[in-house]
Amino acid sequence: MADSDVATPIELPVIDISDPHDPVVGKAMLDAAAKYGFLYVNSKGTDFSTEDVDHAFGLSKRFFASPAAEKETCRITPNNRGWSGMHTETLDPENQRTGDFKEAMNFGDFENGKAQQPVPPVLAPHESEISDFAVLCTKTCNRILSLLALGLEMPQDFFTSRHDPASGPTGSILRFLYYPSIFSPATASYKHDKDVRAGAHSDYGSITLLFQRPGQPGLEILTPEQTWAPVPIVPGNDPSAFPFPPILVNIGDLLSYWTDGLLKSTVHRVVFPLAEQRSPNPQDRYTVVYFCHPVDATELVPVPSEVVKQHRAKSGGVGVVGFGGGAGSLEPGKRPLTAAEHLESRLAATYGFTKEN
Ligand SMILES: O=C(O)CCC(=O)C(=O)O
Ligand SMILES: [Fe+2]
């Protein structure tokens, strides 16, 4: 694969989602999701204010700076909730000699503002604020899911009605991530071209929202030419165009399966860009990620979309997905997979054990 530092950054479309009922925007969203599997949404016209995002990053920073003994009180459990320390997770075990150079804190569904898991002491007074942030994430995901449904020429609520946490538990996760800088003792063993901050993987859910901070680069996506392309944190030449860096959205495996591979679940990873390694002032990278999943019991029935049908006819429906052929290959008399079963099968295929990325 090409050296990521000589690769040209990828240019992805920036989509304004302030009107989730606009079919033209739906088409633009669908095109980006089908071509790249990644797109930005303009931070104006989402459900977030700059303060909401700054506040979430502030809480995340305080958590990762808190004593290890406190983080231990909420260590990650098999339900994928809690704190995972440096090198605990290895997203690409076949190609990594060391676990990811990152720490993460995962929150599952909140109920009435309450986490359904141990909350670390430093975050306990802020539990409802974290829950509020997760609610804003679901609202923004609903805009995106509505637009994708419009782009697919389906009833606009086809996806959103199946992602409503009021209908039951979901696999959704709000995650704080911390990747220490190249100056940190925690990264002393990091070797360029051997190690990664987060191994190559695709996400498992429907869609993922990624919030990033200016000056903290590292994300790369695998292009169809099998090269790594860095993704700029702020697209274009005018950072002042956005109140905070646009939210990067990517399609996960489940939505790719559900649309028979029309929507792409693109492989991505996090590295130390060479420029960052050589910088006199390298930065830690903090990100906030929301993995949006349908309600567990959702049946992944074939989507009622002519656009998907045409895609199937064109691609022959063979090898387009790789994870069981896609929802449209459901044989007569067979029951569709549920969202929870799809997740299980992805986890089993990747790791042989239950762990979501
Ligand atoms: O932190 C990032 O930039 C990406 C994180 C990611 O891809 C993941 O946790 O699935
Ligand atoms: Fe990811």
TrEMBL record:
<dbReference type="GO" id="GO:0016491">
    <property type="term" value="F:oxidoreductase activity"/>
</dbReference>
<protein>
    <recommendedName>
        <fullName>Fe2OG dioxygenase domain-containing protein</fullName>
    </recommendedName>
</protein>
<dbReference type="InterPro" id="IPR005123">
    <property type="entry name" value="Oxoglu/Fe-dep_dioxygenase_dom"/>
</dbReference>
<dbReference type="InterPro" id="IPR044861">
    <property type="entry name" value="IPNS-like_FE2OG_OXY"/>
</dbReference>
<dbReference type="GO" id="GO:0044283">
    <property type="term" value="P:small molecule biosynthetic process"/>
</dbReference>
<feature type="domain" description="Fe2OG dioxygenase">
    <location>
        <begin position="169"/>
        <end position="294"/>
    </location>
</feature>
<dbReference type="Pfam" id="PF14226">
    <property type="entry name" value="DIOX_N"/>
</dbReference>
<dbReference type="Pfam" id="PF03171">
    <property type="entry name" value="2OG-FeII_Oxy"/>
</dbReference>
<dbReference type="InterPro" id="IPR026992">
    <property type="entry name" value="DIOX_N"/>
</dbReference>
<keyword id="KW-0560">Oxidoreductase</keyword>
<comment type="similarity">
    <text>Belongs to the iron/ascorbate-dependent oxidoreductase family.</text>
</comment>
<dbReference type="InterPro" id="IPR027443">
    <property type="entry name" value="IPNS-like_sf"/>
</dbReference>
<keyword id="KW-0408">Iron</keyword>
<dbReference type="GO" id="GO:0046872">
    <property type="term" value="F:metal ion binding"/>
</dbReference>
<keyword id="KW-0479">Metal-binding</keyword>
